[in-house]
Amino acid sequence: MTQDSNPMRSPLRLILLILILIGIPLTLGLYAAPRLVPEPQVGLIRLSQEITASSAYEITEQLNYARSDPAIKAVVLVINSPGGSAAYSEELYLAVLSARSEMPVIATIDLLAASGAYYMAAAADAIYAKPTSSVGSIGVISILPGDVFIQEEELTTGPYKAFGGTRDGYVRQMERAKHAFLEAIANGRGDRLTADLDYLSRAEIFTGVQALELGLVDDIISSDDAIEKAAKLAGLRNYQVVELYPLAFESDSGGSLVRYQPPPVDEQRLWVPPSNLAPGLYYRYIVPAER
Asked: pTM for this one?
C-alpha cells in the first residue's frame, strides 16, 4: 500500500491550515477595528467668555465638527458666560438646535449662564447647573444711536439712512427681541418651565437652586454627571470624552491634541461691564455700577 502524499489529507495539517486562514484575518480585524470604527465619543464645547462674533464662530465650528464626525455621538456645552451680542446669541441658539436634531446636546452651567448664554442653552435637550450657579437675566439691552442731525456734506436717500432709525424705533426692536427670547425659552423648556414668562421678563439673576424651582434647569449635578447624562441619551456605555476645540481647530498641530488643556475661566472678566459697545441689541448681563 502506498502512502498518500497529499498534505491536505493530513488532519493535523488541515487543522493548521484552517487556523491560519481564520486566525490571520481575525487578528487583522481586531487590530484594524478600532481604527476603522473608532470608539464612540462625547464632545465637550466650552463657552467661557462673552458672546461675540469670534466666540460664536468658535462654538458653531465645533458643533459643525461634531455633526460631521461619526465618532461624536453627543455634545456637552460647558457654559461660563454673561451673554453678549443678540444676533450672535440667536445664531448659537439655532446652531444648537441643528446639532440637537442629529445627536443629544446637553448644557451644563458652571459659574454663569446669563442672557444670551442661557438663550443658547435653552436649545439643548437638558440644562444642568450647580447650586450657586448664576442663571437668568432673560432680557435685552439696547445701545441707542446718537442724535439725528443734518449733515449738508452727506446726501442720503432717507432721513434715517445714516442713523438706522429713531430712538423709539430701537425701543420697539427691544420689545420684539424680548418676546423672541421668551418664546425660545418657552419652546425649549416646554412643560418643564414652571415660571411665568412675565416673571422671567423681569430679567433677574437666579441661583442654580432657584433656577431648578422655576424650571429653567433640569437638575443640580456636576459636569461629570452631565456628561454621563449625555452618554446615556446617546445610548453609550463605553465611550471617550474629548475636547472639540482642538479637534475643530488644531487637527494639524502635530500631537497637540494629547497635550491640550482648556484655558482656565477668567472669573473677573465674566462680571466686568463691557465698554464701547456699538449701537444695537444685546442679550447680556451687566452688573450694576456701585454708587
From this structure: 0.82
